Amino acid sequence: MAHIRLNTHPSQGGQAAPPIIWGARDPKLRGPVVGTVGDPAKRNAIGVHSGSYGIYRALAIAAQELKPDHRPDFTNTSPAEPIGPFESWFDPKKIVSLDPWGHMVAEVFADKLAAGWDIRPTIAVTKAHVNMPEIMDAMAAGRLKPDNDILSGSGDVKVTKAAIEPVWWLPGIAERFGVREVDLRRTLFEQTGGMYTELVTRPDLELFLPPIGGSTIYFFGDVSKLGKPDTKIACRLHDECNGSDVFGSDICTCRPYLAHGIEICIEMAQKGGVGVVIYNRKEGRALGEVTKFLVYNARKRQPGGDSAAQYFNRTECVAGVQDMRLQELMPDVFHWLGIARIDRFASMSNMKSDALREQGIEIVEQVAIPDELIPADAQVEMDAKKAAGYFTSKKPETAELAKAKGRGLNE
Amino acid sequence: MAHIRLNTHPSQGGQAAPPIIWGARDPKLRGPVVGTVGDPAKRNAIGVHSGSYGIYRALAIAAQELKPDHRPDFTNTSPAEPIGPFESWFDPKKIVSLDPWGHMVAEVFADKLAAGWDIRPTIAVTKAHVNMPEIMDAMAAGRLKPDNDILSGSGDVKVTKAAIEPVWWLPGIAERFGVREVDLRRTLFEQTGGMYTELVTRPDLELFLPPIGGSTIYFFGDVSKLGKPDTKIACRLHDECNGSDVFGSDICTCRPYLAHGIEICIEMAQKGGVGVVIYNRKEGRALGEVTKFLVYNARKRQPGGDSAAQYFNRTECVAGVQDMRLQELMPDVFHWLGIARIDRFASMSNMKSDALREQGIEIVEQVAIPDELIPADAQVEMDAKKAAGYFTSKKPETAELAKAKGRGLNE
To answer: How far, in Å, CA of B383 to CA of B395, rounded?
Structure first.
């Protein structure tokens, strides 16, 4: 059996990693993201593809269910709709956490693939029909009307959708957070308990494929209108909440807001604009669900009951921060889509709107969730967020915040 | 600034990691899982807590939003319902991918926590009310009746729920897959592009906290009845499918089957049993959503159209395997819950039922999804799975499998 190589170094093998000129206009000059483990000389990224599912791939090889040298056959997999390139792809500071060419690798790197390079897409674009009961409700209430194209009378909605895996260009990530790249690399290495020595030994490798979840985008309307300044855009920017999104838990407004955002996106598409729903895998404010459930218990059991005044404190006691979503990276996807202006933004979050404006994306109208869509037990969250800076026409009074409005744990 | 330590070794510092005797009856003898980065001498696990959200934690520290020395305050966070210990916790071969004491660390390791050890829960148990439109439909159709306790007339369902982060005991994982531990460790290291040198340098560290998603369990009925042989159990074992579970995409039966499973769980709880829905983060058969969307395109565009006969082939061409969920580890959660028999199992998957039986869990009745709940475009998937071994009363004919039943990509 071959020697195990614990750490790699830039000089090793006398061959430099294939260069990346992030933001270069010509994709051949920009160079492909190569996260292969089968061909070390061509590798120019730390980590492997598929986000956290890269661990399942390794386990499948260990279990002898997958051959380590399998190369994907990309026949018929190309994007169902073209997206880009847009001018925003060529400013290396605008997109730092995804590869804008990620869906087009089979096309723009066809010569390298033919020469045997193991290059993989980090984005895929397909089409689907979706059907959510809330859309039927919106039709029944007369808020939406079927058009037999985008929205059928049975509630089927035609969408284009894109899945995106994270690709971090480390110099850009460091600059976005205002820290030195060397400190970013060292902290990522040390605070993950030593994940990827290459973060510190390979400053020549500027790309990192982190083992985290990515994003999914649902498009409503004509995707070819993206990138045109006169196209009106509606948007819901949604961070995963499995308990509400899937199971309809009533402690938060996540699924109601998602459904409301989709309603607004369908409406915009019917008027000739494009609706964009962005779904980010950041469960429990990126603290994960174990922390989220611990906080639920602490909120419901605290002396005085579950109140808006203590809402953020309880998270901070357990997690050390109120929120770990780091919205600084989130605007990248808008630059990928050539969106510089959101006409109708279905979100009240000041963290999201501030982060978008910081990256030069204009928000024309921020659309609040209608009161009748807020579950009773979620009023604590809404009051706390409004007091903390959420977009609202009426900030709650201090006395209101101190009231226990959430159910007790055993109710 | 301190020297960066690239690799660690067992002899280092002259102090051995706190021992783990996996499966030991006394939790103090078993020992705590310690995934801290703040106190290396007490660390006995490779990796960090929170699954893939550990990377967000590291990034938050790099961005100077979180102090690296923050210790959680666990006041009021203890489980909303007790679970275990059960006899199955004390067979080290029965549970290898989670820590059965994970929700009880503040109780069973109280002395070590008081002495300053950084021990964190890997499981949290809370309570919630959930509400899904499909449950209202089931009441309207007369299949479910409100009881004003578990199920209210407005469709609110009372649940207990648990979030579980993965904790891998590497000797047990290796044995489960029938491979040598040294080979498992090396393959996990090399095939992730060098994630965690400790996988190979630290054979003394038997625990690994992999950066992958975990599981959520929804309980219907009285949780204290778990572990009693006469308690009837209904179960839906569900692998994440964001497109269907959240957005209601009609290409598969995921959300319809989940809702049907919940219906069966509510029914069982109303009859005095316990319903258990297990939700595993294994998107797109643990291949991830980018691969899933590439496969959708290949299925819809192939000559002859989207047919059951080609269903699994298209996945294998892209991913190298038909499935990467590795159901071998999935039964652990049943042993954690003291469940040795599932009376009503809402799943047709032979991969799931085979894996459960292999681990000694009896399945009394396998409940198929009613035909009227299958979306038209999902018929391709259903036919393919039935032909491949899914539980069904009528296997499809070969001629039937060759028919293109799925929509074209642009329909």
So the answer is: 8
Q: CB distance from A166 to chain B under 8 Å?
A: no
CA-nearest residue to A60 within chain B is B324
Chain B touched by A256 (CB under 8 Å): no
Interface touch A131/B250, C-beta < 8 Å:
yes
A325 is catalytic: yes
Amino acid symbol at A159: V
Q: Which of B43, B325, B344, B383 is catalytic?
A: B325
CA quadruple A47, A48, A50, A55: dihedral sign: negative
H/E segment holding residue A280: strand A274-280
Nearest-CA distance B10 → chain A (Å) = 15
Chain A residues within 8 A of B212 when measuring between CB atoms: 52-53, 55-56, 211
Helix (H, G, I), strand (E, B) or coil at A147: coil
Q: A318-347 pLDDT, tens per residue?
A: 999 999 999 999 999 999 999 999 999 999
* Torsion A151-A152-A157-A159 (CA) sign: negative
Q: Which residues contact A115 (CB under 8 A, 6 or more apart)?
A: none
Q: Are A126 and B409 a contacting pair, CB within 8 Å?
A: yes
ipTM of this complex prediction, to 2 decimal places: 0.96
Q: What is the pLDDT of residue A377?
A: 86
Distances (CA, A) of A185 to A168, A198, B60: 12, 9, 13
Angle at B218 (CA atoms; ends B176, B28), nearest 5 degrees: 55
Contacts of A122 in chain B (CB under 8 A): 290
A-chain CB neighbours of B65 within 8 Å are 321, 324, 326
Max intra-chain CA distance, chain A = 70
Instruction: Give residue B43's pLDDT.
Output: 95
Which residues make beta-bridge pairs with B215? B164, B280
The whole-angstrom distance between B342's CA and the closest CA on chain A is 22
Structure tokens at A2: 């071959």
Given CB atoms, is B380 within the 8 Å cutoff of chain A?
A: no
Between B53-62 and A181-191, two packed helices, what is the crossing angle to 10 degrees?
140
| Across A7-24, average pLDDT | 82
The two three-digit tokens of residue A17, written as one number: 């990693």
Contact in structure between B344 and B373 (CB atoms under 8 Å): no
**Nearest by Cα to A238 from A333, A140, A126, A129:** A333
- Spell out the domains of chain B, with CATH numbers in brackets: 27-282+325-375 (3.40.50.10990)
**Contact residues, chain B, for A351 at CB < 8 Å:** none
> Are B191 and A37 within 8 A, CB to CB?
yes
Q: Check: CB of residue B161 under 8 Å from CB of residue A243.
A: yes
Pairing of strands B168-169, B207-209: antiparallel
pLDDT (0 to 100) of residue A13? 53
Average pLDDT, chain A: 94
Q: CA-CA distance, B289 to A213, in Å (whole number)?
A: 10
Q: Please pick, among A99, A323, A332, A383, the residue that the annotation labels catalytic.
A: A323
3-state secondary structure of B212: coil
Identify whether B341 is a catalytic site residue.
no
**Cis peptide before A18, with omega less than 30 degrees from 0?**
no
Chains A, B: CB pairs < 8 Å: 404
More confident residue, B382 or B83: B83
- Name the nearest CA neighbour of B47 among A189, A51, A165, A184: A189
With the CA atoms of B320, B247, A221 and A165 taken in that order, what torsion angle do they form, in degrees rounded to the nearest 10? -40
Residue B260 phi, psi (nearest 5) = -60, -40
